[in-house]
């Protein structure tokens, strides 16, 4: 048994210190990428513990939402439009996750979101029933979790609590993310930042896909999963710094390119350990005030970015 | 103001693709740019940018294509792409009436906000699906309705299929012919205009753009 499995196999004595310990183990040892069912299970448990997602009655809740059947035709059409096109070029994903599973989870989410709307407690950030991008966020969860209800439960945690501002009808949250990406790049790699802005390439143009999908639009998926291990441990705001890392990794190519905009359309295949190492290294350079905005922009739609 | 590179007349045409999600915008662009087609393209997020060079009367025409995401949540980003475009291609799915109404909305928005000079082409995609014998399509678009809409709005109209390649090149060819050489220098407009000048620079004329135009000067 690895030390991570060891740690999560019994209830913690002290929640906070055990969580820090688990986070540290993710950073130092990491979870292996493997086809093995037991390994998958461990990853899902770790994500659950780190995000403090309760799995109590998750299957029951999922089943009762499933019983509601298809959501309204408009929503269902939108979902189907996208699920048939989600990670279809990735054979590993197709082997492990069926389109039906994507449709079921997204339909349940639409129902639950409609129910939540009746409750004034949740009205401050109006998360959408379905918007494009949710399919790409759900995909790594279904890919990594041993059961659909568990993936669904983590998905609701992610959408309602971790990154709600990215899932509203308008794009405010993601646009704030893009502004912060511009700022972070300017601090970390002023030369690259200047080159891109001279070419009038702003984060809103090249960064939107990676921001909105928490980098899950990048390839390969197994490396995305490792980035998510890290972000479940240390926070999804780190995604902004990871996008900076993607850019810094390809900087020499960008400088040489006669068409940087073409180059930035799809980031090249990446190695998660390398991106994490770079991204973590950037933290020291980011002023506290900006770092706090990075943390807050995922949950607060009204922040002011200088 | 940097309207440089005016010496050599080479036509650069900026085209923006608009339309409902999953009507085949990216597929049309892919067919034109690399003569390729795949059934399972992933939905576009934000927008994608592609270029393609062709010739007209022995002169090079460069198409700079912004392929935008169709879902309504990305609509706020669209003006950034269509402002300063010389042409807009609005796509709908011939088997899906709703997508035609969305196309009507886009045309209306373009007329209101993109200026009068913009060339607009309406494209009915997925024509191959209509040609399958024995298929009954309840939601197919009424073609008379489309025709009268095009006449009323003064649009170019193409029935195309990215899958078979039918009429795809004709869209770009006709759009290319409609744009006079004199119009190659981008119109300067309000904030957040996105243009690409001849040397592949995007010129986002925005109040946030600062500093000079030259690159270089090592900061590392």
Automatic annotation (TrEMBL), chain A:
Gene Ontology cellular component terms for the protein in this record: Bfa1-Bub2 complex; mitotic spindle pole body
Annotated GO MF terms: GTPase activator activity
Keywords attached to this entry: Cell cycle, Cytoplasm, Cytoskeleton, Membrane, Transmembrane, Transmembrane helix
Keyword Heme tagged: no
Main localization (coarse): cytoplasm
SUPFAM superfamilies: Ypt/Rab-GAP domain of gyp1p (SSF47923)
Domain Rab-GAP TBC, first and last residues per copy: 37-235
Transmembrane segment boundaries: 227-248
Pfam families, A to Z: RabGAP-TBC
Matches recorded under Gene3D superfamilies: putative rabgap domain of human tbc1 domain family member 14 like domains, Ypt/Rab-GAP domain of gyp1p, domain 3
Protein localization: Cytoplasm, Cytoskeleton
GO biological process, one term: negative regulation of septation initiation signaling
Family: Belongs to the BUB2 family.
Name listed for the protein in its UniProt record: Bub2p
Organism phylogeny: Eukaryota, Fungi, Dikarya, Ascomycota, Saccharomycotina
Automatic annotation (TrEMBL), chain B:
SUPFAM superfamilies, per the entry: P-loop containing nucleoside triphosphate hydrolases
Stored CDD domains: Rab5_related
InterPro entries, per the entry: P-loop_NTPase, Small_GTP-bd, Small_GTPase
Alphabetical keyword list: Nucleotide-binding
One MF annotation (Gene Ontology) recorded for this entry: GTPase activity
Cleavable signal peptide: none
PANTHER family according to UniProt: PTHR47978
Protein name as annotated: Ypt53p
């Amino acid at each position: 048994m690895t030390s991570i499995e060891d740690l999560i196999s019994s209830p913690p004595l002290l929640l906070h210190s055990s969580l820090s310990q688990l986070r540290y183990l993710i950073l130092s040892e990491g979870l292996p990428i493997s086809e093995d069912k037991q390994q998958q299970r461990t990853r899902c448990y770790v994500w659950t513990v780190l995000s403090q997602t309760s799995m109590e009655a998750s299957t029951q809740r999922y089943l009762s939402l499933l019983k509601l059947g298809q959501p309204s035709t408009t929503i269902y059409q939108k979902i189907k439009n996208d699920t048939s096109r989600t990670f279809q070029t990735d054979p590993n994903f197709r082997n492990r996750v069926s389109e039906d599973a994507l449709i079921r989870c997204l339909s349940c989410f639409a129902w639950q979101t409609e129910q939540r709307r009746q409750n004034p407690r949740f009205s401050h950030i109006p998360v959408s029933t379905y918007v494009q991008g949710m399919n790409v966020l759900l995909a790594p969860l279904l890919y990594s979790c041993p059961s659909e209800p568990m993936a669904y439960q983590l998905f609701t945690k992610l959408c309602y609590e971790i990154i709600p501002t990215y899932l509203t009808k308008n794009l405010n949250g993601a646009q704030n993310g893009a502004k912060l990406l511009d700022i972070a790049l300017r601090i970390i790699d002023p030369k690259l930042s200047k080159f891109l802005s001279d070419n009038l390439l702003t984060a809103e143009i090249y960064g939107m896909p990676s921001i909105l999908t928490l980098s899950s639009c990048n390839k390969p998926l197994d490396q995305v999963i490792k980035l998510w291990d890290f972000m479940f441990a240390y926070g999804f705001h780190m995604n902004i710094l990871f996008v900076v890392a993607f850019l810094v990794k390809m900087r020499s190519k960008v400088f040489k390119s006669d068409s940087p905009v073409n180059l930035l359309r799809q980031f090249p295949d990446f190695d998660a350990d390398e991106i994490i190492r770079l991204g973590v290294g950037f933290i020291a350079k980011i002023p506290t005030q900006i770092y706090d905005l990075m943390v807050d922009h995922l949950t607060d739609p009204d922040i002011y970015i200088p | 103001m940097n309207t440089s590179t005016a010496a050599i007349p080479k036509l650069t045409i900026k085209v923006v693709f608009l339309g409902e999600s999953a009507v085949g915008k990216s597929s049309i662009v892919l067919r034109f740019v690399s003569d390729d087609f795949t059934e399972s393209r992933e939905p576009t997020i934000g927008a994608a940018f592609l270029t393609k060079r062709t010739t007209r009367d022995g002169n090079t025409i460069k198409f700079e294509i912004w392929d935008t995401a169709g879902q309504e949540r990305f609509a706020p980003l669209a003006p950034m792409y269509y402002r300063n475009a010389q042409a807009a291609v609005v796509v709908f799915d011939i088997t899906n009436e709703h997508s035609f109404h969305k196309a009507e909305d886009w045309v209306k928005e373009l007329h209101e906000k993109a200026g009068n000079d913009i060339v607009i082409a309406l494209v009915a995609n997925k024509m191959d699906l209509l040609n399958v014998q024995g298929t009954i399509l309840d939601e197919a678009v009424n073609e008379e309705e489309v025709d009268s809409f095009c006449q009323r709005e003064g649009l170019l109209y193409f029935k195309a299929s990215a899958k078979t390649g039918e009429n795809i090149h004709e869209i770009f060819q006709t759009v290319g012919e409609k744009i006079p050489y004199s119009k190659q220098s981008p119109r300067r407009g309000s904030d957040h205009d996105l243009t690409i000048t001849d040397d592949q620079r995007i010129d986002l004329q925005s109040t946030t753009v600062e500093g000079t135009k030259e690159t270089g000067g090592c900061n590392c």
